[in-house]
Design a protein that fits this description.
single chain, alpha/beta, Rossmann fold, Helicase, Ruva Protein, domain 3, Zinc Finger, Delta Prime, domain 3, 3 domains, two-stranded parallel sheet, 15 helices, 57% helix, elongated
């Protein structure tokens, strides 16, 4: 079994990229014409931005893709010198083969400083005849407007459940794993459309057991089981504050969760409680308040206790 599943199962063709049909259709047309603008991929992690960029490069250049492709991770190298030296030196030379341009892929380019982005803007403008850029970012708002206006922008979304299940079934078949529908549901709840996270958790589970269970998934992902969170909130809503507080402490210690982790799970579980919509809205507001206080430095356990007290008061009202 490979210890790098993300690379092993990375898409090799456009058909292998899941969940981004609109972007794939348009980009495939660019590749077929061997002519494309600069591209900007934005969206959350693990949804196929880097994979699609590599599929584009390999489809264009075939066996010569290594000589015509430069990949930089902007979160490691994000100063203006990188743009002035590495990027410019690669961009000014002609491509090898029939395609009239090379491709530079800048991953996490929203980590570039403003000065580096300004230098990049000029480079994109000056070397359009010999080079195309594919930029990848989690947040398009952190990319300066002049760069955005020079690119065709494609917004990636988290993978829907059916696409994640297709990838999951393929991996399970090739790696000889047994995974039932409950475990698939648990895995999707944990990864929330992030395919890379799904593969990493599944690989960690497969090292321990070939039979993948929801309990194993939650333990490897360091996430409390939703039923435990729901039970804690139900105890609080029934006025059993001491028991709810004890269950909270148990969950935090058993799973090694921080206060922020617990709050995010509580926020999801609130909607399954037997409360009125108005009460649920009130608790979501209190949830956000507790998270804000924790981010500002308040004691996490004290804030979560205060939130459980609010749950009990809300039910009485």
């Amino acid at each position: 079994m490979s210890n790098l599943w993300t690379e092993k199962y990375r898409p090799r063709k456009f058909e292998d990229v899941k969940g981004q049909d609109v972007a794939i259709t348009k980009i495939k047309a660019f590749v077929e014409q061997q002519n494309m603008p600069h591209l900007l991929f934005t969206g959350p992690a693990g949804v196929g931005k880097t994979s699609l960029a590599l599929v584009v490069v390999k489809s264009l250049f075939k066996d010569q893709w290594h000589q015509n492709f430069l990949e930089l991770n902007a979160s490691d190298e994000r100063g203006i010198d990188v743009v002035r030296n590495k990027v410019k030196d690669f961009a000014r030379t002609k491509a090898i083969g029939n395609v009239p341009f090379k491709i530079i892929y800048l991953d996490e380019c929203d980590a570039l400083t403003k000065e580096a982005q300004q230098a990049l803007r000029r480079t994109m403008e000056n070397y359009t005849s010999t080079c195309r850029f594919i930029l990848s970012a989690n947040y398009s708002s952190k990319i300066i407007d002049p760069i955005q206006s020079r690119c065709a922008v494609f917004r990636f979304k988290p993978l829907p459940k059916h696409d994640v299940v297709v990838i999951l079934d393929k991996i399970a078949y090739e790696e000889g794993l047994t995974i039932n529908n409950e475990a698939k549901e648990a895995l999707y709840q944990v990864c929330e459309g992030d395919c890379r996270r799904m593969e990493n958790i599944l690989q960690s589970c497969a090292v321990l057991e070939k039979n993948i269970t929801p309990q194993l998934i939650f333990s490897m992902a360091a996430v409390a089981e939703p039923e435990e969170i729901k039970e804690m909130l139900n105890l609080a809503s029934q006025g059993k504050f001491a028991e709810a507080r004890s269950r909270l402490l148990s969950i935090m210690l058993n799973y090694g969760l921080s206060g922020i982790d617990i709050v995010k799970q509580i926020q999801k579980a609130i909607w399954d409680l037997s409360l009125t919509d108005r009460q649920k809205i009130f608790l979501i507001d209190k949830c956000a308040e507790a998270e804000f206080r924790m981010v500002e430095g308040s004691d996490a356990y004290l804030q979560l206790e205060a939130f459980l007290a609010q749950v009990g008061i809300t039910k009485e009202k």
